[in-house]
Amino acid sequence: MNAKFTGGSLDKARLDTLVDAVYAIALTLLVLDLKLPDGLRTFEVPAHLRDMLPKIAIYAIAFSTVALLWVCHHYYSTLVTGTDFTHVMLNLSPLLLVSLVPFTAAAMGAYHNSSWAVATFTLNVAVICFLYVLNWAHCRRRLVPAQIDRRLLDTMSANAWYSLGGEILATALAFIVPVLGIAVAAVMVPAGFAAMARLEPRIMEAVKER
C-alpha cells in the first residue's frame, strides 16, 4: 500500500452532488443565448434562423465541451475513495470557471471573428483543464488506492495533459485566425469522448478490483 495514500477522511458524495449540480446549471444556461428577436414576421424567420447558424454551432461546441468535462470528472472520480480539504478546493475552483462558460460561449458566439472573444472561451476551458490536472495529481497521491493499475492512472494523467495542451493550442490559434481556434476546440470534443470510451472498460475493471 502506498504510504501516502489516505483515502480521504470525508465522504465525497456531497462534493460529487455539488459538481453535478453546477455542471447541470451551466449546460442549461448555455441555451439562453439562442433566441429569435421578438416581433418577426413569418417570412423573416428563415433569414434570422440562417443568421443564427454560427451561434448554434458555437452552442453545440460549448455544450459538448462542458459535457465532456463532466464525463471526465465522473469517470476519474470513480477511482477516488474519499475527499480531503485539498481535493475539495481543487473541485470548487474549476466550478467557478464552469459557471463562467455560458458567458464566454456567448461572447464567442456573438463575436466569432474576434480573437479575444474566441480566446476568452478557449482559455476558460484551458484553465479548467489545468485545475483538473492538479486535482488528478493530488488524487493519485492521496485518494486513489495503491492497487489500481499504475498504467491506467498514467494513461488518465496523459489524457488530462493532452486536453490541456489542446485548449492551449486553441487559445494560441485564436490570436492568429479565430476560426482555427474554434476548429481546434471543436475537434477536442470527439477526441475527448473517444479517449474516455477507450478508457471505460479499464476504469470499470479497476472499480471492480478496488
Number of distinct beta strands: 0
What form results from the Cα inertia axes? elongated
Q: Strand fraction band? A: under 5%
Average predicted confidence as pLDDT: 92
Biggest sheet layout: none
Query: How would you classify the helix and strand content by structural class?
Result: mainly alpha
Outline the structure in words.
The mean pLDDT is 92. The chain has eight helices and no strands. The chain has 210 residues and is mainly alpha-helical. The chain is elongated. It has one domain.
Question: What topology emerges from the helices and strands here?
Answer:
Elements: H1 13-29, H2 45-51, H3 53-77, H4 85-98, H5 101-110, H6 115-142, H7 150-174, H8 178-209
What would you say about this model in short?
It contains 8 helices and no strands. The two termini are 12 Å apart. Helix content is 75%, strand content 0%.
Give a quick set of tags describing it.
210 residues, mainly alpha, 8 helices, elongated
